[in-house]
């Protein structure tokens, strides 16, 4: 048997939304997510690189299970400490980016409400790359309904790059995300910086991060918790419950 795309086309040419579910249900184990751990290890080991990571809010309550903790345990402090032990120069919370996205989407919604003849309804969020890809490939007629705002990951990446643009070392931006679709989002052409590089260099899934922690010998259950770096610490806004909406 042969496992592949329809008519053996490249994945970029078929209606794949990169949700990763094919990896879960593949009967032969022939499918696997693109592993970026080697790329990240290489960046962390390069003294000429300034490596920053942003972490999605869901990671902190799914990570502990891989280390024998009760499902849903919040291990944010331990996660931050582990990231620093791995060698990341700065650890930031994507909640900050989620709050920015909420404000921008709210402004866009208000603008649409004030100009009902100019915009079509309803307005859909643009935060999920799998959802955006689904609309693009299966219902392109609905694209005008999708918000023009970037996702929290991309919006925050732009802010961080601007914040550290004077940093003498080469900036490398890593995003720790729960979904394989984020890997594809990071590679989209519209998310390139002015110099042609991607705003997010590499995306790690929870499983990849678990692999790195175990490879390094870090004992997550016993490590002392640490706080997210400022000025982009955990916000008190709605970013933490963005996914709930």
Topology overview:
Layout: H1 21-25, H2 37-44, E1 49-55, H3 76-86, E2 90-93, H4 95-114, H5 129-138, H6 152-163, E3 170-176, H7 181-186, E4 202-204, H8 206-216
Parallel strand pairs: 1-2, 1-3, 3-4
Helix pairs in contact: 4-6
Structure explained in plain terms:
Helix 4 packs across helix 6. The protein has 245 residues and is an alpha/beta fold. It contains eight helices and four strands. The chain starts with 20 loop residues before the first helix and ends in a 29-residue tail after the last helix. Helix 7 links the parallel strand 3 and strand 4. Helix content is 34%, strand content 9%. Strands 2-1-3-4 form a four-stranded parallel β-sheet, sandwiched between helices. The protein is globular, with a radius of gyration of 19 Å.
**Element-by-element helix/strand order:** HHEHEHHHEHEH
Return residue spans where pLDDT drops below 50 for at least 5 consecutive residues.
none
What do the pLDDT scores average to? 88
Decide which structural class fits the backbone. alpha/beta
Spatial strand arrangement across the major sheet: 2-1-3-4
Question: End-to-end distance, in Å?
Answer: 41 Å
* Total count of helical runs of at least 4 residues: 8
Number of strands: 4
What is the oligomeric state here? single chain
């Amino acid at each position: 048997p042969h496992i592949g795309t329809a008519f053996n086309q490249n994945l970029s040419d078929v209606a794949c939304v990169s949700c990763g579910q094919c990896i879960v249900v593949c009967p032969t184990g022939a499918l696997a997510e693109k592993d970026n751990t080697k790329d990240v290890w290489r960046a962390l080991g390069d003294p000429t690189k300034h490596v920053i990571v942003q972490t999605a809010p869901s990671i902190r309550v799914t990570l502990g299970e891989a280390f024998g903790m009760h499902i849903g345990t919040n291990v944010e402090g331990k996660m931050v400490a582990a990231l620093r032990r791995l060698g990341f120069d700065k650890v930031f919370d994507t909640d900050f980016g989620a709050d920015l996205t909420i404000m921008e989407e709210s402004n866009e919604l208000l603008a649409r409400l004030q100009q009902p003849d100019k915009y079509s309804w309803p307005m859909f969020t643009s935060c999920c790359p799998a959802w955006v890809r689904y609309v693009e490939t299966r219902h392109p007629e609905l694209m005008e309904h999708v918000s023009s705002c970037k996702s929290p990951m991309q919006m925050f990446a732009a802010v961080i790059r601007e914040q550290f643009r004077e940093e003498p070392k080469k900036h490398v931006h890593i995003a720790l995300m729960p979904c394989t679709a984020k890997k594809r989002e990071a590679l989209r052409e519209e998310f390139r910086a002015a110099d042609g590089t991607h705003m997010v260099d590499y995306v790690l899934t929870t499983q990849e991060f678990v692999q790195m922690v175990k490879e390094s010998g870090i004992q997550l259950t016993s490590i002392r918790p640490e706080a997210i770096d400022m000025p982009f610490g955990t916000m008190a806004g709605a970013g933490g419950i963005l996914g709930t909406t």
